[in-house]
Amino acid sequence: MTDAEIKQEQQLRSQLRTVFLQCGMRFASQDAERTIAAKLTELGVTCDTSLGYLRMTQGATEIAPSGMAERIRKDLPNLFSADPKRDSIASRQDLERGSASEIASAKSNYIREHGLSAFEALPRTRAEAEIKNTPVNQDLTRAQYLALPFADRVRLSGVFSADTLARIMARRG
Predict the structure, then answer these.
(1) In the chain, which ranges are E strands?
(2) What is the pTM of this model?
(3) Tens-place pLDDT, residues 113-157
């Protein structure tokens, strides 16, 4: 790859991450952007970031980023953190309804469809799932901030001022 191609790929990955965050979707996988870019290419979608934002076309039709995000989330759910607003199963608690045999059946069906790693990544309760999917902003509570992946907390420590981080850590809830 040439330097220009590498730079273009980095811009595309950054814009994809931005679009999904704006739609309230957080990645659970480290290589999600690469996988999504490959899926878009497979679907015949052309991505252009030369204007400073993500512009997608399929043939002669322009695609809305939010519609693309919803479709990708539906097609590749294992790339995203569990979200109680979008998923019928967002936590392990959601699988524990009914008799012992129904619970075992629900868990095995979930593992069969999504894989063991997705099952292990599920938060224990629906409340934890809601905390983990809070949009990142300066109004986070301490619990929401600490629920973020370590890489996001490190990134935010460089973005937020020391005062902002102190206010976040002082908030209860």
Answers:
(1) 45-48, 55-58, 61-63
(2) 0.54
(3) 888 888 888 888 777 776 666 667 777 888 888 888 787 788 888
The amino acid at residue 145 is: Y
State the DSSP code for 136.
Answer: P
| Together in a domain, 9 and 74 | yes
Q: Which residue has the tokens 């690469």?
A: 34
- Give the separation between CA 136 and CA 138, rounded to whole angstroms: 7
Are 74 and 13 within one domain?
Answer: yes
Number of structural domains the chain divides into? 3
Please state the φ and ψ torsions of residue 29, each to the nearest 5 degrees: -105, 140
Q: Are residues 11 and 71 in the same domain?
A: yes
Q: CA 52, CA 45: separation in Å to the nearest integer?
A: 18
State the average pLDDT for the chain.
82
In which domain, by residue range, is 34 found? 3-79
